[in-house]
């Protein structure tokens, strides 16, 4: 009966298959393949290299935020303020730079600190009041939406910021947050690198660090986590600050891509991040999911939003597709998980 | 089996606890030594939970003395109890169902290797240790990577006990480990309780089942409505007497009926490989 180290005879036959089924992102990968095949037939231009770069770019803009939102969801919480926080972060950089200094990097730094503080506020309020994160971040969402519009109108006199393209440090900041290269006929944007790097780092944190273990535990059973000495409060606050950090990256990309920021943007994007995370296999109740899954979810988003354009359909259909995809992915994930856990 | 030349690991003398004007516990004495199982028996509301909370450091006693290894102690919090080597396994077991067994085993005390940003979980060590520690307790797990929620109730209980033993517990406090389990599962758990005892731990076993208690216990403390209704050693009391003392009069017929069933299947303990959750049984 001593089987330690050796291959257990009760495990061998189904091991690989089971392990594959047990991965949270499996449903999303199957879904991504289906969407890819579908649009390959529906839209001939879908398979061109230039289309792929466009798809990757729009996937990366959602994906950068879907990563921390997925981690937060594994930790059992939501952040409805994630969408407008991106805009807040961009506005902060732009307006602080314009009003206070001559160098955009100062504004970028101030924006980082303030955005992290907003993330801390979310996490702190949640752990202090013990109210549902839905309520706390809905409050932050509304407040930020109001502040974005109010401050921008107050300072700039219009709903968008003034251009900062002629300021010192703009070109170096643009290189970091919004550059692009031509590889042959294909244009690749730097956000794709940010996105892949974030997915890699988040996966490392989740699967190979103590913090990752704590994130799963806090989401999967907060009482048990507390009883075994996991710093539950710190983990939750850290997750919200992770969302803030990525909102900052995303916000700087928007700012340095377009020079100006529209203060009303970002509303509703929080749901896209959540959808990408859920399609990627994150459980709404927490304790289960992956960062790679969120990337696949974001990729599905990119394929669908652009595929509809390439197929020359009315883009009004996009939301319908997204909703149907969300339902199908969730059902598929639930089914896969049941199969994986049935022994 | 009793160790007489060293002080008891935990010794409570005339301990009382009041919640406002409610007397939750009055004049209860209990002791447990290394390699010994002390059973605390009582019906619902007898004060078992209060007693366990005092030993676990969740509540402080209001009167009487609480000695750990001969030293008078007041535990400030559960952490202090753990530092004294008192580990409590509650009914909810403090496990996260969706996480693999090995992650649960080390939850909150994960070993790491590497430095700086490359500091990472020592996954191999965690997996191997989990497997080895469970095997040492006689649990032969199919796969330490399976979510702990897929284990049977008895197996989960055993993992929680093995975890407490691994992290240096000297005294194991078990809160009704067999309460939610079937007869066979209870047998499995009791076997591991005995294994912990044989490993040199002192065990405080809280239960309302005299039959389970009598199978493994060295001492028996009976609680009734917050007071001590009796304290016995294994030699001085029979199962029938223990049962009679615990339940009185009209309840007894019903109870003895239940116990006879337990007695039949009690000695017939399943082997460690039995997958009792799905109903399949190993030979």
Automatic annotation (TrEMBL), chain A:
Keywords in alphabetical order: Cell inner membrane, Cell membrane, Membrane, Sugar transport, Transmembrane, Transmembrane helix, Transport
Membrane topology of this protein: Multi-pass membrane protein
Segments passing through the bilayer: 26-43, 55-73, 104-124, 131-151, 186-207, 237-258, 270-288, 295-311, 317-336
Gene Ontology molecular function: any one: transmembrane transporter activity
Superkingdom field: Bacteria
PANTHER family: ABC TRANSPORTER PERMEASE PROTEIN YPHD-RELATED-RELATED, XYLOSE TRANSPORT SYSTEM PERMEASE PROTEIN XYLH
Protein name listed in UniProt: Xylose transport system permease protein XylH
Organism of derivation: Streptomyces roseus
